[in-house]
Amino acid sequence: MTSRLLSALVTLFGVVTLVFFLIHLIPGDPVEYILGDSARPADREALRLQLGLDQPLLQQYGSYLYNLLSLNLGVSLHSSQAVSALLAERFPATLELALAAFVIALLLALPLGVMAARKRGTAWDGGAMTLSLLGVSIPNFWLGPMLILLFSLWLGWTPVSGREGAGSLILPAITLGASLSAVLARMVRSTLLEVLNEDYIRTARAKGLSETSVIWKHALMNAMLPVVTLLGLQLGALLAGAVITETVFSWPGIGSLLIESIQKRDYPVVQGCVLLVAVSYLLINTLTDLSYQLLDPRIRVR
Amino acid sequence: MKQRIALVILLLWVAAALLEPLLRITPNAVHLPAILAAPSPDFWLGNDGLGRPVGGRLIAGARIAFVVAFSTVLISALFGTVIGAVSGYVGGMLDHLVSRVIDIMLAFPGILLAIALAAILGPGIGNLIIAIASVGWVGYARLARSQAMSLRSSEHITAAVALGSGQGRIIFRHLLPLMMAPLLVEASFGLAAVIVAEAGLSFLGLGVQPPQASWGSMIREGAGFLLVAPHLAVFPGIAIMLVVLAANLLGDWMRDRLDVRR
Predict the structure, then answer these.
(1) Would the pTM of this model clear 0.80, i.e. be above it?
(2) CA gap B72, B135 in Å, rounded
(3) ipTM
């Protein structure tokens, strides 16, 4: 447990360092990149000072780490708001979207996967797996506009974009959750099929339990471990996938903030967004790792 | 059967992409009377907001998609495999360092890093390839490393060591050929992933720049005309879906045929 946390800390340090060096990857002068060729020399000098680019690289890195510890991520070049305030304002919307996508993915995938496993080899199974293959192959930047076309423009059931009321959450959540639910359904099916061959399932059936109880209580609980691993890894990926989904639906979260800031070349905000998503992703993965031990005590013993 | 269809779809698209210069397609030609026109006998897939032919732009987009996909997969597979194989075989400090770097890269959601890199490097096909490959090599490196570690103690390697082969010779002559099957499977799934990544970055405006056609930027442009001309966004999406579906099916099939466990 301690070694896992320690290795997560080392990785966190690596992620933070990588984000710092992103700005220094820019071929040429970052100031020129941000302001363009037509900027006045005085403005360039001011920005250079503001970003601390006049200092030696190691010193910049040191003050970056120091500022991170005090949650100071710098100031937006565009609105002069603190980056941490901007992130705090936008993060709840992204979290809401990711969690809704997560729930939708589970609600779709569990019944689909269980049905495919129970009716293995039938048309139901084939249909479910074809659906899942489609789900992985449709990119979310296409699924989003298609859902808007169908449900917002033609049927008029949901708003086209924005974040007002529960109705506006549905389409973005489906768009973001679709591929996760497809992968998940496959995994539920395959782990369930493995578990269904175990002796204790035969025992459960032999003692006369109903098939529903055998599947949902005895089999599914034991099939959960790889599923939870996947879920943990995918929840982080949902945060990253939200970048595209939020852009499609003008959802006011971190993802659309990132793309807006890229367009405005507002570098401190870009850095902040990347850092926040990467750190949340790492955090979720570490928590997933630790949650194995709760779900499967055998791992703790080893 | 499924694999045959997948292969045919993929080959047709690759052929269209390769033959694009010969097909006398004018993806950027503006036809003012045909702005937002629905599919017609003259323009089979209709025209976009500037009156450019959607069909021609789809084929031009296929060229971009495959150029980016094949070069990115090639670069990241070569780079990743060599790093992973050397690190896994040699071990020691080098392996420690490489596996740390792999961990850190995997701790980053891939698409996020690609977006950040594409934004920093600026638009253009070359930068797009660099951005996606900088993320993509990690998967191959991890795979090659674990393969090299498990093959290291096999008998034919011991024999090669006993015969006095150098490390380089062992890695390139005795290790890499045995790793080809899983790498091929990985590369086939990689092809699908890169096509989606290219289209995604171009959708966000970070990839191919106008007036050049990319499937991703076509969907972005089409999303503005959903109500009046839905075909603008529908067709490029179907193109992406077909290619990705085909590449995934092919990957599944190769995995089963070559008996690779993922």
Answers:
(1) yes
(2) 10
(3) 0.88
